TrEMBL record:
GO molecular function: ABC-type vitamin B12 transporter activity
Entries under Pfam families matching the protein: CbiA, GATase_3
Protein name per the record: Probable cobyric acid synthase
Keywords: Cobalamin biosynthesis, Glutamine amidotransferase
């Protein structure tokens, strides 16, 4: 059987709950797959066959011990600005749409999502489904293919997750249940109260009151846990500052308006002070500056230009500070960006920051999505230590390197001293070799010791195996797993996979 995890709002912990359930079932020998019909996120992942899905579903798949696949997130919306999103359907770019026009295709998209779910259920037997945002968005019920319409199509048991850290948990749960459609409300079989700080036992009277008010069982009160898991979307950036402050090596990641795949830097966050710095803020006190990926290179470049970031980068270059561009950030570091109307909807030629002698052209609605393994071949004290790394590319446009050395075999570009380089490779600094190379050099310049990591935390599974085991144990300690397991047995009462 399967289960749906809905939330009282965005960022209450639905993704983490699904990951915890997937890992807990995997540890019991029960095959399971994650599923989110529609995701809106600029943090994405490329599967082995080149499909693009939300990064949360990829890491949920790793938690379940399986390879990510397009069916796990059949509809991915990637906002480009001005109420326009790119629609990625079953892992491939479908089209750019105004949100008001997107809703005209709701029936078709729901049918695609249900078909994807059924393929997963046939393959794995069990699926843990994640909703999106808040479940009780009453103005969207007629077109809510991530929550209400999906729940109506699948008719699965629902667990509702609420975030007590925000306050108002009684109103969250009671209000959400009260506003659910009459045919959906009876499907809710339990509530999980998430992100409790302190002794969860102190909330026993609160549990009793919630059950009295709603008539729905509270399956658990899960304490807040600072387990290093990948971030799903930009809401997570606000949570980061307190985790990395105070470390001697300081890295600035420019917080682009349409920043994408900032999970690229979450391994660095465990060893350095990584600040996500808004455009216009000074960059003088940082040991390294990273321009990350973006969903719209041209528009974010214009924002940085107006904010004076170009001058900050040039001054940093004069000070010998390493400057690294990933994907869209790589494109911005070049001399020019030639857009035939793909990024900005007008034909135009834009001046880049000129720190790399490269030119990028957007000439067609084609997206490169591929997993890669490359050896660093560029010069300088960072790239020469990197070695071979894994990653993935997700980008529009192609970049001509000219006479500069490649940063990696056949890809990217670097200055002759190697202190400025760019690459299309997402996930670069999730490789311990690359993270060690950067952090060791920055520590040497700072005159502080650095103990190289021997493997990404946990090892294997993109470095998160141990983290997901920790998450599953934490979840099982505080949630009534016996109650949840009722929904993962077959008709004879035998545990699935037994």
């Amino acid at each position: 059987m399967s289960l749906i995890v809905l939330g009282t709002a965005s960022h209450v912990g639905k993704s983490v709950t699904v990951a915890a359930l997937c890992r807990a079932l995997y540890r019991r020998g029960i095959p399971v797959a994650p599923f989110k019909s529609q995701n809106m996120s600029l943090n994405s992942y490329v599967t082995a066959d080149g499909s693009e899905i939300g990064i949360a579903q990829a890491f949920q798949a790793f938690a379940a011990g399986i390879e990510p696949a397009a069916d796990m997130n059949p509809i991915l919306l990637k906002p480009k600005g001005d109420a326009v999103s790119q629609v990625v359907l079953l892992g491939r770019p479908y089209k750019d749409v105004q949100i008001r026009d997107y809703y005209t295709e709701t029936d078709m998209l729901l049918a695609e999502a249900v078909s994807a779910f059924e393929r997963l259920r046939r393959r794995y037997g069990h699926v843990v489904v994640e909703g999106a945002g808040g479940a009780a968005e009453v103005n969207l019920y007629d077109r809510d293919i991530a929550n209400i319409r999906l729940a109506r199509a699948l008719r699965l048991p629902i667990v509702l997750v609420a975030d007590i850290e925000r306050g108002g948990v009684f109103a969250q749960v009671y209000g959400t249940l009260a506003l659910l459609p009459e045919d959906i409300r009876p499907l809710v079989v339990g509530v999980i109260v998430n992100k409790f700080r302190g002794d969860a036992g102190l909330f026993a009277s609160g549990v009793a009151k919630l059950e009295e008010l709603t008539g729905v069982r509270v399956l658990g009160v899960v304490p807040y846990a600072d387990i290093p898991l990948p971030s799903e979307d930009s809401l997570s950036i606000a949570d980061k500052g307190h985790r990395t402050a105070g470390r001697p090596v300081r890295i600035a990641v420019v917080r682009l308006p349409r920043i994408s795949n900032f999970t690229d830097f979450e391994l660095l966050e465990q060893y350095a002070s990584v600040d996500y710095v808004p455009p216009g803020r000074p960059l003088a006190d940082y040991d390294c500056i990273i321009l990350p990926g973006t969903k719209n290179t041209v528009e974010d470049l214009a924002v940085l230009d107006r904010a004076g970031t170009g001058e900050e980068l040039r001054l940093a270059r004069e000070r010998g500070v390493p400057i690294i561009g990933i994907c869209g950030g790589y494109q911005m570091l070049g001399n020019r960006i030639v857009d035939s109307g793909i990024e900005s909807e007008v034909h135009a030629d834009y001046r880049g920051f000129g720190l790399l002698d490269v030119v990028t052209a957007f000439t067609g609605y084609h997206k490169t999505t591929v997993q890669v393994r490359r050896r660093a071949t560029g010069p300088g004290p960072i790239l020469e230590r990197v070695g071979e790394v894994d990653g993935y590319e997700i980008h529009m446009g192609e970049t001509e390197r000219g006479d500069l050395p490649a940063a990696f075999a056949g890809e990217g570009a670097a200055t002759p001293d190697g202190l400025v380089f760019g690459t299309y490779m997402h996930g670069l600094f999730q490789n311990p070799g690359a993270a060690n190379a950067l952090l060791a050099y920055l520590s040497e310049r700072r005159g502080v010791p650095f103990e190289p990591m021997t493997a990404a935390p946990g090892g294997g599974g993109n470095g998160i195996v141990a983290a997901y085991d920790d998450l599953a144990r934490h979840f099982e300690e505080h949630v009534d797993m016996n109650a949840i397991m009722e929904y993962f047995v077959d008709a004879t009462g035998q545990r699935a996979g037994a």
